[in-house]
Amino acid sequence: MEGLKLYQSYEVYGLSANPFEQLASEGITDVESIHVYQEIDMRLQMIVSEVIGNKSSIALSIVGPLGMGKTQRLKTLAKAIDENKGKAIYVKVDTNDILKLTRDIFYALKPPKSRTNIFLENLSRKLGFIDRLEKMLSDSKEYKSRDIAELLVEQMSKYPYCALLLDELENMGSAREHEKIQFFEMLRHFISTMPKGCIVAFACVPEAYEEYTKIFPAFFMRLHYEFKLRPMSLDETFELVKKRLNRVRIRDTDDPLYPFTEEAIRLIHQLGKGNPRQILRLLHYVLSESAKHKFDPIDDYVVTTILEEPKSLEEYLTRIPKEYKDLVEAIVFEFNGGPVSYIQVAKVVKKPGMQVYDKLNELIRLGFLVGDPKGNYKVPDYVRKFLEEGQAEKLKGE
């Protein structure tokens, strides 16, 4: 029944669903049909051709703010290597522990468990490979960057093509400096001796990237390419909207932007500052709200009306994307709107600190929270007025 209601709500525009719901394109099966290609995509295609065609080995970085498409580009590289019967190791960095991170890289090499694999693993253990690795990953004092890199090269050399892809490398930023140096030294040595037909790539936000380059310039000098993602242009945003809408159309239209007008998309592009994920969030919210009220067409006046400041605390909370709602509610109800540190919030919601840190910073970018010079987080001034009026206690009681 829920699906039927959703279908009917967008049918007013000749759409079967809200095509902007999936913010991450890597979660969409036919991603090629909706992806808006930028210069970086053409360059990455050339790099893949060079690696597959000439057995070249290339190291690169992809740098950009959250929501700019870094993950999708790494996944595209992984898919290209997999399709050519190679081995792609993709690791989403979720720790500042270099021992766990390195272990995650080697674990990604392991094939699924079977009798044969267990036999080979036991044989490897007898030959000393696993024991040797485990010893080096037992403590940062035992971490031998060069030896670990050589073990990784040895394992990756077994495949015709390979890739080491590290996503969200900023999450290891809070590791101790000497441990970061150890890890980057391992990567540097791997790049220096990597097998033929190999891609090493990592994605990172600009602030962390700048910090890393200062700590270990020798590693970054080894990179062949450095890609800095730029915001979407207005024309690219038009293309994004057209492609997404086209996937769910159930009624023909002469205007590929319908139900949006050009002025509406221009305003959303401006408000989203060219960030693809932010633009998709705004499109999703505006289309959802417009369908409820049957606004037709959705022009810049409608967008302004929908996105104007909330009139109450309840309205503010309903606008928060569901994956962030628990964090904002904790700040509102447990800390009276802040300021509060990400560690304090993490303890209340019982989630990993770095995950909470990333989400709180995304909420700042989305305009739902503001930061202060001490690195704390708080609600905007207009929400503060709601709290002073005592709305929080009323809502909490309900």
Characterise the protein shown here.
The protein is an alpha/beta fold. It contains 20 helices and seven strands. A five-stranded parallel β-sheet has the order 2-3-4-1-5, sandwiched between helices. A two-stranded antiparallel ribbon has the order 6-7. Helix 2 (39-54) runs parallel beside helix 3. The radius of gyration is 24 Å and the shape is globular.
What topology emerges from the helices and strands here?
Blueprint: H1 2-11, H2 39-54, E1 58-63, H3 70-83, E2 87-92, H4 98-107, H5 115-127, H6 129-136, H7 145-156, E3 162-167, H8 177-193, E4 198-204, H9 206-215, H10 217-220, E5 225-228, H11 234-247, H12 262-271, H13 276-293, H14 300-307, H15 313-319, H16 325-334, H17 342-349, H18 353-366, E6 370-371, E7 377-378, H19 381-388, H20 391-397
Parallel strand pairs: 1-4, 1-5, 2-3, 3-4
Antiparallel strand pairs: 6-7
Helix pairs in contact: 2-3, 7-8, 11-12, 12-14, 16-17, 17-18
Concise structural overview:
The chain has 398 residues and is of the alpha/beta class.
Radius of gyration: 24 Å
Number of extended strands? 7
Output the strand order for the largest sheet: 2-3-4-1-5
- What kind of assembly state do the chains in view correspond to? single chain
Report the structural category. alpha/beta
Distinct helical segment count: 20
The biggest sheet amounts to: 5 strands, parallel
Unreliably modeled segments: 1-8
Report, as a whole number of angstroms, the end-to-end distance: 27 Å
The gross shape turns out to be globular
Order of helices and strands: HHEHEHHHHEHEHHEHHHHHHHHEEHH
Proportion in helices: 40-55%
- Can you give the mean pLDDT? 86
Strand content: 5-15%
